[in-house]
Automatic annotation (TrEMBL):
Stretches the record annotates as Domain III: 156-206
Domain Helix-hairpin-helix DNA-binding motif class residues, every copy: 72-91, 107-126
Family: Belongs to the RuvA family.
Species of origin: Siminovitchia sediminis
UniProt cross-references to SUPFAM superfamilies, sorted A to Z: DNA helicase RuvA subunit, C-terminal domain, Nucleic acid-binding proteins, RuvA domain 2-like
Function, in words: The RuvA-RuvB-RuvC complex processes Holliday junction (HJ) DNA during genetic recombination and DNA repair, while the RuvA-RuvB complex plays an important role in the rescue of blocked DNA replication forks via replication fork reversal (RFR). RuvA specifically binds to HJ cruciform DNA, conferring on it an open structure. The RuvB hexamer acts as an ATP-dependent pump, pulling dsDNA into and through the RuvAB complex. HJ branch migration allows RuvC to scan DNA until it finds its consensus sequence, where it cleaves and resolves the cruciform DNA.
UniProt KW keywords: Cytoplasm, DNA damage, DNA recombination, DNA repair, DNA-binding, Hydrolase
Protein's cellular compartments: Cytoplasm
Protein name: Holliday junction branch migration complex subunit RuvA
Length: 206
């Protein structure tokens, strides 16, 4: 199985990107192909998952490893296949999906394409309490980042809050969203995990 492919973004289709590596073009299905539009001709790493069936072999790819981990969790749910999991990730950040499942928010989950009440309930039954590794992966990605983006360095002086903001960034939240959430958490005295949990709750309500 391919863990990731590092190569040049050569082509973008409605559901896929083509990554060229050593003269081979890999067609990789991805939730949002057009996020790679500005990176055509650039080298980057795509985190991949190979899905094999009797009649088809497909390669799925993600910009961040957290998305890949969430994808693997989603396809483990009865009734959700790879295409359904891609649709969910195309419309929601991994952190939003995690929080909706942990809070048993069926109404939020049914907003995703192809997810009805029955599937939403199955997602909760199968995944609630089993998604800590997705958040942990986000924290690992945050730790791998040397620092916050230049325009975000001033948003926090707290080490725990700083780490939480990095983890939320790895889970897909923008600098603009993070600055807003930081102002709401600035006066709190929490651990990193507590900051993340509280931030996710605020994001879900907004």
């Amino acid at each position: 199985m391919y863990e990731y492919i590092k190569g040049t973004i050569g082509q973008i289709g409605p559901e896929y990107v083509v990554v060229e590596n050593n003269g081979i073009g890999y067609q990789i299905l991805t939730p949002n192909p057009f996020v790679f539009s500005a990176k055509i001709g650039s080298e980057m790493t795509i985190y991949t998952y190979q899905h094999v069936r009797e009649d088809n072999i497909a390669l799925y790819g993600f910009e961040k490893d957290t998305e890949k981990q969430m994808f693997k969790k989603l396809i483990s749910v009865s009734g959700i296949g790879p295409k359904g999991a891609l649709a969910i990730l195309a419309f929601g950040k991994p952190a939003q999906v995690v929080q909706a499942i942990e809070m048993e928010d069926e109404k939020f989950l049914t907003k995703f394409p192809g997810v009805g009440k029955k599937t939403a309930r199955q997602m909760i039954l199968d995944l609630k309490g089993k998604l800590d590794d997705v958040i942990t992966e986000g924290k690992a990605e945050a730790a791998a980042a040397a620092e916050l983006p230049e325009d975000s360095k001033d948003i926090t002086d707290s080490a725990a809050l700083h780490e939480a903001i990095l983890a939320l960034s790895a889970l897909g939240y923008s600098d603009r969203e993070l600055k807003k959430i930081e102002s709401k958490l600035a006066n709190e005295d929490l651990t990193t995990d507590q900051y993340i949990k509280k931030a996710l709750q605020i994001f879900m309500k907004s």
